[in-house]
């Protein structure tokens, strides 16, 4: 076979019928209508997220945004702020380096530059960030979850 040419599976009758209905504008969900909350919940992926060969929980994106809001979109080491207009990128760092431990007390917001520094001498960074979180926990602004 020449390159770029492939054999297709034959379409089922039901598939052909659905294609025809779609061409006529007959769909189960009318165009322009938003999905209900129940439909969105069903569509959410329940598989873990794989990023840089690390496995994160399926709701990692929501967890990290919650931490960004808690920390006011500010790096907790150098205090640079990500306000959407600067090129500063922030990241959510696991204090104990365990990607499965998503407790609020184990997560902290860092800028890209500060997050890169934490890859060396990890035990020192663990102690440093735990020390930074203790006053927040004592004041009650950081939940113990």
Give a summary of the structure in a few sentences:
With 145 residues, the protein is of the alpha+beta class.
For the secondary structure, the number of strands is 4
Number of helical stretches of at least 4 residues: 5
First-to-last CA distance:
59 Å
Helix content: 25-40%
Largest sheet: 2 strands, antiparallel
Whole-angstrom Rg: 23 Å
Are there runs of 5+ residues with pLDDT below 50, and where?
A: none
The SS-based structural class is: alpha+beta
Oligomer: single chain
Task: Output the strand order for the largest sheet.
Answer: 1-2
Strand composition percent: 5-15%
The overall pLDDT, averaged over residues, is 76
Shape: elongated
Instruction: Tell me the series of helices and strands, N- to C-terminal.
Output: HHEEHEEHH
Topology overview:
Blueprint: H1 13-23, H2 37-43, E1 49-51, E2 54-56, H3 60-70, E3 90-94, E4 107-111, H4 112-117, H5 122-139
Antiparallel strand pairs: 1-2, 3-4
Overview of the structural elements:
There is one protein chain. Helices cover 37% and strands 11% of the residues. The protein is of the alpha+beta class and 145 residues long. It has a domain at 59-139. A two-stranded antiparallel sheet has the order 1-2. A two-stranded antiparallel ribbon has the order 3-4. The protein is elongated, with a radius of gyration of 23 Å. The N and C termini lie far apart (59 Å).
Features:
145 residues; 4 strands; alpha+beta; two-stranded antiparallel ribbon
